[in-house]
Amino acid sequence: MAQNLTQVAKFDYDEMFLDELDYFTQDDRLTYGVAIRIQTGWDSLTGTPIFALIDPLTWIPDPLAPLSTFTTEKGFLRSYRFHGFENLRHVSELTEENGYFDIKEVTKGIQSESRTTHQAKTQHRSFQDIMYNDDNIVEVYDHYTIIEGKKVLVTLANDYTKIVRLEVLAPILKEEKKNDANIEFPIVLNYYKPRK
To answer: Within 13 Å, how many C-alpha atoms sit on residue 40's CB side?
Structure first.
């Protein structure tokens, strides 16, 4: 049985390209103190989740989360009310199939951003081998939050003035299907914790 579990773990590690993801995760943890992964989908061919690494400089966390830490049977848990991420998307990603609407009203190109944010986005894109010219990209803000008791993803464009996606997060686990409050944001935070 242990050999089967080892083979399954190795398969998942190889199919999910975790060696590359882990490398950049460790780099972000050591550089910024936190690495952020978002589950962006599910690979039905390999039966594994798809994760994307998000640059920590583009993260807008809930400022009250450190104050809302509580103890559970699994240990300490921070209760984030929201997570926000500034992103650049290729125009071809903004489709109705991906949940976007009012796409024709979206302004293309980089709007207004700080130099630090622009440098972070440029570095992040270069790591992922994404080369967009300004005519093919759209500046968006993804905001994971809670609306009327449901966890949702809201995507804003045009300098945060236009909602272009509103998606209710679907329950996956049995506990989540019983109670919407148990649905987790698809975000994994890996903090750097120095050893004493």
So the answer is: 11
Question: How far is it, in rounded angstroms, from Cα 22 to Cα 35?
Answer: 10
Residue type, 92: S
User: What is the largest distance, in Å, between two alpha-carbon atoms of the chain?
Assistant: 56
> How far apart (Å, rounded) are the C-alpha atoms in residues 138 and 108?
5
Element (H, E) at 153: strand 150-157
- Average pLDDT over the chain reads 78
- In the three-class reduction of DSSP (H, G, I as helix; E, B as strand; rest coil), residue 102 is classed as coil
Per domain, the residue ranges of the chain are 2-191
Could you please report the per-residue DSSP string of 30-91? HHHSEEEEEEEEEETTTTEEEEEEE-GGGEEE-TTGGGGEEEETTEEEE--S-EEEEEEEEG
pTM exceeding 0.85: no
